[in-house]
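Weekly modeling sync, notes
Attendees: AB, CL, MP (scribe)

Item 1: holo prediction request
CL wants a bound-state model with adenosine-5'-diphosphate before deciding which constructs to order. AB pointed out that an apo prediction alone won't tell us much about the pocket. Agreed to run with the ligand included and paste results into these notes for async review.

Input as submitted:
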Amino acid sequence: MRTALCPGSFDPVTMGHLDIIQRASGLFDKVIVLVAVNEEKKPVFSPDERVELIKRVTSSFDNVEVDQCRDLIVDYARKHDATAIVKGLRAITDFEYEFQMALINRKLNNSVETVFLTTSEEYMYLSSSAVKQVAHYGGDISPFIPPQILADVEKRLKKSR
Ligand code: ADP
């Protein structure tokens, strides 16, 4: 039984995230999408809201679970017998940070391997912060957010403007 974690902020979950989750779900027996709660960041969506949105967009994948985590990801991995951390890589901007995190995580827990996946080209430049910025200026975010949650995400982002 191979379990992988897909950690991230998911504030909110985008088509880019969903693409990575879907690819991971085809490669591993079980995937836990993990909302990493970082007190230093100022998210728009609460951890519970982010978990609920991810649950809705992944409900058709029967090997995907969603959880939240306030501890080190590698400690969560140890507790849940996960052997891989799956990260999405966008254009070069993600590389340096993700490479550093992967090496630090390996030092912390040598039994967890970081695996990098790339999205479809259409989502290569997509990020949650770009979605929030577009919404802030009243732009159309429908190409970037899964249709099942679009109306709720739009409503919520409008409220936070
Ligand atoms: P964001 O930058 O969108 O807020 P997160 O912090 O939630 O992203 O990232 C969680 C993971 O998903 C990271 O590994 C990140 O590189 C990856 N990811 C996010 N958006 C994309 C995308 N459009 N294509 C590939 N990977 C992505």
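Recorded for review: Residues 95-108 form the longest helix (14 residues).
Action items: CL to compare against the apo run; MP to circulate these notes.
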